[in-house]
Amino acid sequence: MSSGIELLQRRGKILQALLIGGALISVATLAGQIAELNGVISLESEQFSQAEMLYALTGIGYLLLLLATYILFGMWIYRAAANIVAAQTEGFDYTPGWAVGWLFIPIANLFKPYGAMRQIYNASNGRGVNVIDEGNWLLRAWWAAWLVVSIAGNISFRLSLRAETPEDIRASLEVDALATAAGFFLYPLAYLLVKRITDAQKHRLTSAQIFA
To answer: For the chain, how far is it from start to end, CA to CA, in angstroms?
Structure first.
């Protein structure tokens, strides 16, 4: 049976690859969004040009990759938390299920997932119960970028559903471009966070005691 540490490493490698892919495709997505804002291309055209077709396909690819990243990120968080629980770390306040579940609870998802990740980070690095909630700059920067991307993306989606005029469509696109631009910070920060926690558990937790 594969150990929980090995499972975390496998998920971490795939997740890191997805994060790199997301960072790359977001560059093309933002370029298309800027072009659309400047009137160079338009997805409202009756017949797409080659550039508009490429932009549309890039947008679809971006959304699919984003969905895959979110799913695997949740699976990675679950395993990281499960390893902490299996290692019987004192002071850890989250079950593996709730470490992920808080991401889907309105209002609470603005702060509870950060608390879970902060405890996972510190416990993975072998810190004691008195410092398990301290966190560091990486956690704060990652969570700030996460909030900007999530909130801006949600606002853009809601605006697009209610858009009735060209001005409404433009406002939605502007907010969506902000979310994409914030991803330039989120992707590398998430990559570094995943790498640090995965490496820390590999070197500091007793893998023989942690099973999938």
So the answer is: 7
Question: What gap in Å lies between CA 46 and CA 79, rounded to an integer?
Answer: 47
Q: pTM of this prediction?
A: 0.90
Find the angle CA(129)-CA(133)-CA(134) to the nearest 5 degrees: 110
How far CA 170 is from CA of 83, 155, 164, 167, in Å, comes to 46, 13, 11, 5
Per-10-residue mean pLDDT for the chain, 212 residues long? 82 97 95 92 80 90 95 97 89 92 94 92 75 73 96 93 86 94 96 96 67 43
Handedness of CA 152, 153, 158, 163 (dihedral sign): positive
The answer for residues whose C-beta is within 8 angstroms of residue 21's C-beta and 6 or more apart is: 65
Q: Identify the DSSP state of 127.
A: -
Say how far apart CA 138 and CA 153 lie, in whole Å: 22
* Residue 194 near residue 8, CB atoms below 8 Å: no
Question: In the 3-class helix/strand/coil scheme, how is 24-49 assigned residue by residue?
Answer: HHHHHHHHHHHHHHCCCCCCCCCCCC
Q: What is the token pair recorded at 49?
A: 């040009």
Mark out the alpha helices in the chain (DSSP H runs): 4-37, 50-86, 96-101, 112-124, 137-162, 166-204
Whole-angstrom distance, CA of residue 176 vs CA of residue 167: 14
Task: Return the pLDDT at 1.
Answer: 31
